[in-house]
Amino acid sequence: MAEKRILKVAIIGAGMSGLCMAAKLQDAGIDTFTVFEQADEVGGTWRDNTYPGLSCDVPSRFYSYSFRPNPGWSRFMSPGPEIHSYFQQVATERGIRRHIRFGTEVRSARYRDGQWCVGTDDGEEVFDVLITATGVLRVPRYPDIPGLDTFAGPSFHSARWDHSISLPDKRIGLIGTGSTGVQISAELGGKVRGLKIFQRTAQWVMPSPNVRYSRFTKAAMRRWPVLNRLGYRFWQFYIENMLGRAAVEPCFQRGLMQWLCRVNLRFSVRDPDLRRRLTPDYQAMCKRQILAGHYYQAIQKPGVEVVSEAIDHVQPNGVVTADGTLHVADLLVLATGFDARAYVRPMEIVGENGLTLDEAWEDGPRAYRSVAVPGFPNLFMLMGPHSPIGNQSLVMIAENQADYAMWWINQIRDGRVVAAAPTEAATKNYNEEMKAAMPQTVWMTGCKSWYLGKDGLPELFPWTPIRHRELLSTPRTDDYEVRTA
Ligand code: N01
């Protein structure tokens, strides 16, 4: 039997997907990997986002690694700190931390002489395989509102929450009503001196009660692990076949989602004027679908107001809307989203023949089956372009992508392959097939969202997550340019 190669693998990012990749390498008996992490703790988005009300709107039972169920989840959809602590525990339990270089930002990665040369402030180091696990929404997007920098009080982005500021005595101006703005509003409504929610575009809200698990449930989950696995499968089936299908094809599920959102709005908001202002002029799920338990209740509490008039400018003591009204505020929170196009970069990634990722992605990020890019051998991406993100469990998507990367890593380790990258032709075909399927998706039914790329097409996967899993579970070597020894 040929001796296995000792492979050096570099993983960029110690968030949910980077930790997942590290665990998969360990399971395959590969201990020669390094995780580069620019921050000083694991957790990625769950480390950076700490805003009040932060939780995950995907059921926790399903938002967990399949190889590390958690019987102790406190709620159906658990709060952010608990999710962060879950990822911290996985990193500790599995001994992944000793592989992590904290406080080390990768500045560049160059493919040279069949290896990846990873550059940090400490110098360069070579690896056989490079995995990017840098997340999707990492770079906060600050709004371009005139006078924002003249505001006299504190002001920060939702992903950079300043916990030194006390909230109960503040009149808060909250800009943005995406998934983040809604969670913050639901938490702070009625608990602070004032809350003005500046809504530029109304959102559909799907009712989503968030039950607390009893001691009995947790004990039962611990005692019979099969229950946890059943919970995982149940929510996987439901989310993939309900939200997953509704997003990508006109079907019964899409109609049902729309109906549920309408009924929720109709019965939760009594005031016809407020209801009118909260009614979107596009289909449910066109923007990322909001799932929230008590958003509508929170915004009808005393001291809370939804301002749907456009913002004109900010001045030292508050926000002035187009009708000339001054909305006095002591604190401004910018829940204005993220730069989705900062994908993987700003680090410089250079593949074969000096091709940079910036050049390869001049017309927008594209990849082969969301994981690999032509001209970049032995590079695999977790949460790469056109991953089926939306309202899915990104944990499961990352696992599928990590398993796919492992398939190639095993080929390289066993000596069957030296280097592999998808062909330009296969990648082009795949992207053309996706483009042809896009008009069926709900994301193209007439709204603006961060899902849409430069060309106006969604940068998401236009089929169900089930298809994505199938595509990744059957690697096609014909679609690759494979170099052997
Ligand atoms: O950001 P967004 P987010 N003036 O881009 C408004 C994930 N996530 O942080 O709709 C006024 O969705 C903007 O208005 P409009 C999830 O993938 C997951 O909320 O563009 N308003 C919008 O209302 C999500 O999709 C969870 O007209 C301005 C808001 O700001 C992603 O993160 C929880 C403005 C931005 O909404 C991003 O969500 C939270 C301006 N100049 C987030 N600029 C889970 O539970 C922007 N807006 C898993």
Automatic annotation (TrEMBL):
Q: What is this protein called?
A: Cation diffusion facilitator CzcD-associated flavoprotein CzcO
What are the entry keywords?
Answer: FAD, Flavoprotein, Oxidoreductase, Signal
Q: Name one GO molecular function term.
A: flavin adenine dinucleotide binding
Ranges in a coiled coil? none
Q: Which PANTHER family match?
A: FAD_NAD(P)-BINDING DOMAIN-CONTAINING PROTEIN-RELATED (PTHR42877:SF4), L-ORNITHINE N(5)-MONOOXYGENASE-RELATED (PTHR42877)
Q: Does the keyword Signal apply?
A: yes
Give the signal sequence positions: 1-22
